[in-house]
Structures are given as structure tokens and as C-alpha cells.
Amino acid sequence: MKRAVKIIFNTLRTLSIGKILQLLKLCVPHPLLTLLAFYATIRSFVLAQKFFPQTSSKSGIGNAFRHALWTCLIMMYCCKVTSPKKALVFCKRMTDLHEDLFPNEKPDRMMDLHNNKVGMDLFMEMLQGIHRQFFETSFFIEKLFIKTKTARVMQDSDGDYGNELVYIEE
Fold first, then answer.
1. Could you give the CA distance from residue 1 to residue 13 in angstroms, rounded to a whole number?
2. Is 73 helix (H, G, I), strand (E, B) or coil?
3. Separation between Cα atoms, residue 24 and residue 38, nearest integer Å
């Protein structure tokens, strides 16, 4: 966990003033949601590293798992203090902003955005059967492990991969 926090703070130090202002514009009006999203970020890093130590920080299946888990965790934590609709809007803005603040090459960016959406969709799908106050991390991990088994190699960054996780082969 210490390593994940160190990575996040070192990454934040690289931001320009303009990018810091963009981040503040999202975070200042929503301090509690921001803290919960920050915690979700650390948890997703730690769990992805635990389950996928070789590919959680690259473009492989571990990265796909991490991004989907990240959005599930943001949604889960934020839904405990606000409505699912508001949590979804905040999660989408936060995760899209992440991709803008820390740009990747187009294939990696499209992969991350797609896997973020898979996680948000999974949470909203599961929300129909479980009260939002009773969600636990293990619910998502189990479902996401299943999705890693059917994950698809992203051949075309503009392709339609439905609700499957995607990754880039190294």
C-alpha cells in the first residue's frame, strides 16, 4: 500500500498548473467523493498487483482488471454517500480526467477508457440485485476474474468489444 501511495504522489508532482486546476475543478466541489475515489485508486493498485503482478502496470490483462476494478470501487464507495446516478457521473468524470491528465498512446487510452466503462457497467448491472449499501469488494473481484477469462486482445483501438475487458499483447 505504501508503494501505491508513493506512486500516486510522485505522479501528481508531474502535473502542470493547468492540469492541477482541472483536477481541482473536479475535486473541490466533491471532497468526500474525491477521498473515496483516492482510496479506491490505492485499493485497485494493491489488488491488481496482488493478482496480476506481471501485467497490472503494463497494457496486459492485469491492467484491464485494474481499470475495471478501479471504477467498480469508486462506484461502490461513492454510492454509500450519494445516489448511484451522481456516483456514476463523478466516476466517469474522474476516470476520463485521469486519461486526460496522464495521456497514453491512443491504443492504451482507448483500452483504459473501455475497461473503465466495463467496470461502471458491471456495477450498474449488479446494482439491480444488491442494495448499494451492501456491496463488497469481493463481489467485483469474482465477476472481474470471470471477465479476465474472456478478455479480448484489442486489435483495433476503434473496435467494438462490447462488455468484455480488452488488453494489448506485449
1. 19
2. helix
3. 13
pLDDT in tens, 147-168: 999 999 998 877 889 999 999 9
CB 74 within 8 A of CB 37: yes
State how far the Cα of 61 lies from the Cα of 58, in Å rounded to an integer.
Answer: 9
Residues 168, 153 contacting (CB under 8 angstroms): yes
- Read off the C-alpha cell for 12: 501528481
Query: For residues 6 and 113, what is the distance between their CA atoms, to the nearest angstrom?
Result: 24
Give the pLDDT score at 128: 87
Threshold 0.85, pTM exceeds: yes
2-35: b or e for each residue (b if 16 or more CB lie within 10 Å)? eebeeeeeeeeeeeeeeeeeebeebbeebeebbe
Distance (Å, rounded) from C-alpha 29 to C-alpha 10? 24
State the Cα–Cα distance between residues 87 and 33, nearest whole angstrom: 8
